[in-house]
Specification:
The structure holds 2 protein chains of 2 kinds. In chain A, the strands form 2 sheets. In chain A, strands 2, 4, 5, 6, 9, 10 and 11 form a 7-stranded mixed sheet that branches. A 4-stranded antiparallel sheet of chain A has the order 1-3-8-7, with no helix packed on it. Chain A is mainly β. The model of chain A has no long low-confidence stretch (mean pLDDT 93). Chain A has no helices and 11 strands. The mean pLDDT of chain B is 92. By secondary structure, chain B is an all-beta fold. Chain B is built from no helices and 9 strands. In chain B, the strands form 2 sheets. In chain B, strands 1-9-8-3-4 form a 5-stranded mixed sheet, with no helix packed on it. A 4-stranded antiparallel sheet of chain B has the order 2-7-6-5, with no helix packed on it. Classes of the chains: A mainly beta, B mainly beta. The A-B interface holds A 4, 31, 33, 35, 37, 42-45, 48-50, 55-56, 58, 89, 91, 93, 97-109, 111 and B 30-32, 34, 38, 41-46, 49, 87, 91-104.
């Protein structure tokens, strides 16, 4: 069964450093998403991406964040200058069509720890 | 998207059916009810979704009341591996890239 994969599983970085989190969505999916979950809190939407453009982004997704689909298989989330409060689990998801009835499938997550 | 209300936690005996309620009294006619679960800190896992008819798949059954203001997720024979946080989410038929809005969910503990 196809699944979303994410690398690395755990990333430790120093405050102020740039990090890139990588995701490989399910191969025939066209819509891609990033969510995050701070320890003990709810899963929060960050951004959705389709046709090489951001479809929607939350207030969390400020200028420090960017997304990219650098090739036909990878989808990345970059945080330019990490802060302590960026420490969280980051989940990538993908879906076929993106409409309200379309199912999003999630990857296992990357745990980001900012020191 | 309509707001949902779920009990914060519930226990279930292994081998018994687990019935997880969700209230979505402000749901509108074109909004679907989705259920996901999250085992420990893993990525949310899709379970099932429905509009107004009851639905069943290999994981669970979804019972939606006739007025659509509430629903129940049924895990027919709970196992220890079903211990997780279960999220009930209402999603509308928006344009592309429709986000999922997670609430607090119900923390289900399956006991031997």
């Amino acid at each position: 069964e196809p699944e979303v994969t994410q690398t690395p599983s755990h990333q430790v970085t120093q405050m102020g450093q740039e990090v890139i989190l990588r995701c490989v969505p399910i191969s025939n999916h066209l819509y891609f998403y990033w969510y995050r979950q701070i320890l003990g809190q709810k899963v929060e939407f960050l951004v959705s991406f389709y046709n090489n453009e951001i479809s929607e982004k939350s207030e969390i997704f400020d200028d420090q964040f960017s997304v990219e689909r650098p090739d036909g298989s990878n989808f990345t989330l970059k945080i330019r200058s990490t802060k302590l409060e960026d420490s969280a689990m980051y989940f990538c998801a993908s879906s076929k069509q993106g409409a309200g009835t379309d199912t999003q499938y999630f990857g296992p997550g990357t745990r980001l720890t900012v020191l | 998207d309509a707001k949902t209300t779920q009990p914060p936690s519930m226990d279930c005996a292994e081998g018994r059916a687990a019935n997880l309620p969700c209230n979505h009294s402000t749901i509108s006619g074109n909004e679907y009810v989705y259920w996901y679960r999250q085992i420990h800190s893993q990525g949310p896992q899709y379970i099932i979704h429905g509009l107004k008819n009851n639905e069943t798949n290999e994981m669970a059954s979804l019972i939606i009341t006739e007025d659509r203001k509430s629903s129940t997720l049924i895990l027919p024979h709970a196992t220890l591996r079903d211990t997780a946080v279960y999220y009930c989410i209402v999603r509308g038929l928006k344009a592309a890239g429709n986000k999922l809005t997670f609430g607090g969910g119900t923390r289900v503990l399956v006991k031997p």
